[in-house]
Design a protein that fits this description.
Length: 297
């Protein structure tokens, strides 16, 4: 448990500024980390399961896990694997697709604010409000469909517009954190070559054909634009209360194991404890016990 810590600079980005995506690897950097994670993978899942129960019982915090990545980076499988031992009653999962007509009639954060986990729950967002500074930045024409005052053409979507969105996101996450939501933002960092291999696998394997869309290749042509958009978003919105974690994703077991370890460390850092009853409630328990013991079989 000593090899990795919660704010490990190899993975964690905790403050805005000079973040560069190229400074982070797509494969775990050392054999010692790989051995430790592989050895502790199942143990981490068990601890997460136990601590999720305490989180639910205490009802003081909620935990929000955001997953962002390029297509085929393994978000779905990572979520499924890390949370496989958790009681589903204490987890809310939302997968955000293109916004609906109703969504577009509200501000860009509305549908995400509605999906925030209540106290005691873990919320998982597969894609998130960050799509509004990622895919919309690569495709600014999507902004025009949001009927924003003063935005009539793409020329109106200026640098100031994006800075305002970053400001809104920072304020939104600061508000969540101040009210008990623990935020962890994961970017699954996959190389372009690995994406190519996974796309080809999806095309060649009939069981995986459904995962592939011809549009995936169209978007791949804009790889560099997406990488720049991610870099800018992470640089603008990383904060101690809402850190980004850059997760190597060329090997899927590594990304699953690392996300699991970081989640375990975060839950442990909360110092969670089962709630304790006051004297009056404890007296009520004892009276209930006496009555139960006095029942005749």
């Amino acid at each position: 448990m000593k090899t990795i810590h919660l704010n490990d600079p190899r993975f964690a980005v905790t403050k805005p500024g000079t973040f560069r995506l190229k400074d982070h690897v797509c494969d775990l950097p050392s054999e010692s980390i790989k051995k430790e994670l592989k050895k502790q993978l199942e143990a981490d899942k068990e601890v997460i399961s136990d601590l999720q129960e305490v989180l639910y019982a205490a009802g003081k915090h909620s935990v929000l896990l955001l997953f962002q990545a390029m297509d085929a980076a393994g978000k779905d499988s990572c979520i499924r694997h890390v949370m496989s031992g958790v009681n589903p009653q204490g987890v809310h999962v939302h997968s955000f697709k293109a916004p609906s007509t109703l969504d577009r009639s509200h501000d860009f954060l509305w549908r995400h604010a509605k999906a925030m986990p209540p106290s005691g729950y873990i919320g998982i967002h597969n894609r998130s409000h960050y799509e509004e500074v990622l895919v919309t930045k690569v495709h600014p024409e999507f902004i025009l469909g949001q009927n924003i005052p003063g935005i009539g053409t793409e020329k109106h979507i200026t640098k100031k517009f994006w800075e305002q969105r970053y400001t809104s996101i920072r304020a939104f996450e600061e508000h969540l954190a101040a009210n008990g939501t623990v935020i962890m933002k994961f970017f699954l960092h996959m190389s372009k070559e690995t994406q190519k291999e996974r796309f080809i696998e999806r095309i060649e394997d009939p069981k995986k054909n459904w995962k592939f869309s011809v549009n995936d290749v169209t978007e791949r042509r804009r790889w560099d634009e997406y990488q720049k958009a991610y870099e800018q978003a992470i640089r603008a919105t990383a904060a101690p209360h809402a850190p980004w974690y850059i997760i190597p994703a060329d090997e899927q077991w590594e990304s699953r194991a690392l996300v699991g370890r970081l989640l375990r460390l975060q839950l442990e850092a909360l110092g969670l404890k089962h709630p304790t009853l006051d004297q009056g409630s404890m007296g009520g328990l004892q009276e209930a016990k006496k009555e139960l013991l006095a029942e005749r079989s």
